[in-house]
Design a protein that fits this description.
With about 220 residues, the chain is of the alpha+beta class. The protein has helices at about 75-80, 85-90, 95-100, 110-120, 180, 185-205, 210-215; strands spanning about 15-20, 25-30, 40-45, 65-75, 135, 145-160, 165-175. It has one domain (about 15-45, about 60-105, about 130-200).
Amino acid sequence: MSTFPGSPRLLKGGIVLIDANTSAVQRIITLQYNPDSLSRTLQVQGVGGESGDRLEALRLKGPPVETIKLEAEIDATDQLEFPNQNSTTAQLGIYPQLAALETLIYPASSQIQNNNTQAKSGTLEIAPMETALTLFVWSKTRILPVRLTEFSVTEEAFDTALNPIRAKVSLGMRVLNTNDLGFDHQGGNLFMVYHRQKELLVQKSQQGTFGALGIGGIT
């Protein structure tokens, strides 16, 4: 069924993996359905805490630590109605989509194998494996460098070969800011763009009045 020509195009949220050094795009993962809700928590980075020096009470040592949680749904029901046009889904269900998300928190198998080879050859110290820079994209005003901190999958339906055909994926992400990445890192640059966009949005918000607060002013 064709959509009404005047209807707006529905944008999707998703995840983009890029090379932190070259900015080359390695993978784009589009959420099949946009979550109905997205929760964000901002932890203030104050100086000194509850028992800090009074002179430091109004000081901030950096941007807040922001965490994001969402629940994404993946469903192969529509594709399975036309198995000839969706042969991969007919054979594997939603395994490929789940794998694309799950491998975000896996180091590459080649890296693991290489580290094992170096360890056997007598290498004294092996650096932790570095992954691609993960970006959470939620509209053009929110392109955030993130680290996945929580990941859970609930598989809810299966085909006759026990391939999952419907699942819910819960994702928890921590936004990486300039304290985490530095100003010269590609992710740090993207965070600063996000920060400045917030400041521009403040200018577009409607300013309150003392009258609305029931006071004449601050004296």
